[in-house]
Amino acid sequence: MAFEHYKTFITTKLGVSGHVHRLMAGSMAGMTAVICTYPLDVVRVRLAFQVKGEHTYSGIIHAFKTIYAKPIVYKVYYLGVSFFTFGTLKSVGLSYAPALLGRPSSDNPNVLVLKTHVNLLCGGVAGAIAQTISYPFDVTRRRMQLGAVLPEFEKCLTMRETMKYVYGHHGIRKGLYRGLSLNYIRCIPSQAVAFTTYELMKQFFHLN
Predict the structure, then answer these.
(1) pTM of the entire structure?
(2) Among 7, 51, 55, 104, which is most exposed with the fewest C-beta within 10 angstroms?
């Protein structure tokens, strides 16, 4: 919802179009999402990390009352790159191979949309690319969220300090990108289904 509103605003009010407006709208949608959901993410990580017999928080409400965390930029990069990549793949595909990749929209025959299997493919590719670019920020985010339960020598107060610590002690593959392959298993089908559903719902609600 936020993406569509921002895209319309950027196009009509700022006069920006093409690939740039998709990247801007996706990033702004990511900022909106992280502002709304970040506290829930912090609480989830803190509660999941608790060890039996050492419960710092008695429940979700108690965790909300006792935690203060600063939001960081993982979801801004992830959603921004994800929407930008999907929009670009869709635009290029329909421009250069409309007969092969596209079909008339069910709500507006004058508008071409991607075929369902192509939507799934483009969504999966967008998720993989976005995850690859933004993953170091995700590692940093989770480590900062666990700052209260880490040993003193491992605590870092800023994103830059945290990334520097992880890179210095564990390197790139075993530090900043540790667990990326497992995340691909989660994010690729997730984004494929999400973007396909997004496109189908636009047709269902006659938004084309």
Answers:
(1) 0.71
(2) 51
